[in-house]
Amino acid sequence: MKDKNIQPIRGMSDVLPGQTYLWEYLEDTVRAWLQSYGYLNIRTPILEKTDLFVRSIGETTDIVEKEMYTFTDRLNGESLTLRPEGTASCVRAVLQHNLLYSGPQRLYYTGPMFRHERPQQGRFRQFHQVGVEALGYPGPDIDAEHIIMCERLWNKLGLTGIKLRMNTLGSVDCRARYRERLKKYLTPFGNKLGDSVRNRVERNPLRVLDSKDPALQPIIDGAPRLLDDIDEASRKHFEELQATLRRAGIAFEINPRLVRGLDYYNLTVFEWMSDKLGAQNTVCAGGRYDSLVEQLGGKPAPACGYAMGIERLLALLQEGAAVAQPADVYLVHQGEAADKFALQVAEKLRDSGIRVIVHCGGGSFKSQMKRADSSGARFAVIIGDDEAQAQQASLKPLRESGEQIRTGITEIVDMLRKHHV
RNA sequence: GUGGACGUAGCUCAAUGGUAGAGUCCCGGAUUGUGAUUCCGGUUGUUGUGGGUUCGAAUCCCAUCGUCCACCCCA
Whole-prediction pTM value? Predict the structure, then answer.
């Protein structure tokens, strides 16, 4: 059964009803939270021209070098890629439709992303992100807004143990200068570094800084620090951000080695990490990308944003953070007249906002009652021929004590209302 | 991409190289129109797949697919 049937693709999983209520809870909470900060939803295609990601994320990043689902469109030979992240598409769409013409934009998106990595805890080939982007805002005030709003979300969701780490990469020029300096420093260590690391020194030296390889630690510790040689404007930006966060009572740690995996970042970068997730412990990360808009062909515009991993947030939700919402009423019916009447009753109950499952498929009262019970509904409404004859129904509580009562339909609606259904 | 652990009923798991089992779930019944508890009865498998060793393989070997965890990397 497992081999003969078609299996899902490795690292891509079905989310079943036993889990989806948690997803829906999270999605609802997140949407309300985003709206409370005035962010507007944007939806872009999942598939884009490969070049969009290569140009925005960076040719020498792991994502572009080995993790993208890229294929050729058979019909016209174009190279297409399933989006590995959302920022590039979002910026592309903003440029396409000149959204910045009418001023800065606060946007968000949610949906699946795709990276061809080996799956493990907290890492999937299809995973889901909520992304938040603010375009056209230059100052550290928006950086601070992003971080403060994250903290609010963790509180709303009841998540604990999530810590903030920040760094600044300086301006684009500053970052480029530092890159060369770092390269100069690292190159002499060539032999000590493995091939892969040496390659990285050549192509993307900043990535060496956040390596976990213990052998590299002494070398990394001795490396020049970007923070020590940052231009005045960048320093001021970072300091203002810190001051705002302190006023908001948000704890953070500055980690000079924090470098993000995507090339487009500059100035502020940050990362929220959990202590409960195993090796993949980043639940949310982002920063500023002031050059990306121009890089993708737009008029220069500052921007910053971040993304969080839905699966990782779900893994942190406390047991019982949300409960599945069963129907209020399971409607049991038997007999020709009862079957017809039951449908009318069900619609009437729904008119009053009551959630009703109508039993389908016939069967004895006993078997129908079993279904009623296992559906989780709080009440059974029972209609046999006797009730149908009298245009009545019987209401039986399934989760609490109380007698079964036979009465008219409007009375049943009233009684259900009294029970806060 | 590299490494380690693991694949037995829908689910959770047993079974020294000797007939593949339990719990749960599901279905039916316990005075004919009433659930979850209790009691009785019943169904459930190409032991992931393909080879090999053996008189005999769920068990040992090889390959393959998949899952999990870690490396790497990241949300």
Answer: 0.91
Could you give the ipTM of this predicted complex?
A: 0.88
What Å value separates CA A115 and C1' B75?
A: 11
Domain boundary assignment for chain A: 17-171+230-317, 329-414
Q: How far is CA A16 from the centre of its chain?
A: 18
**Per residue in A228-280, pLDDT tens?**
778 899 999 999 999 999 999 999 999 888 887 777 888 999 999 998 888 88
Query: Do A121 and A81 meet the contact criterion of CB atoms below 8 Å apart?
Result: no
**Closest nt to A271 (CA→C1')?**
B75
Residue nearest to nucleotide B45 (CA to C1'): A1
Give the domain A329-414 fold.
Rossmann fold (3.40.50)
Cα angle A212-A172-A167, degrees, rounded to a multiple of 5: 40
Nucleotides of B under 7 A from a protein CB: 1-3, 10, 25-29, 33-36, 45-46, 48-49, 65-75
Strand A266-274 and strand A282-288: the pairing is: antiparallel
Q: Identify whether the C-beta of residue A306 lies closer than 8 Å to the C-beta of residue A146.
A: yes
Nucleotide nearest to A9 (CA to C1'): B66
A128 CA to B64 C1' distance (Å): 31
Separation between the CA of A81 and the C1’ of B65 (whole angstroms): 26
CATH 3.30.930.10 is held by the domain A17-171+230-317 = yes
How many whole angstroms separate alpha carbon A196 and alpha carbon A269? 25
Q: Which residue is nearest to nucleotide B33 (CA to C1')?
A: A365
In this model, does residue A101 exceed pLDDT 50?
A: yes
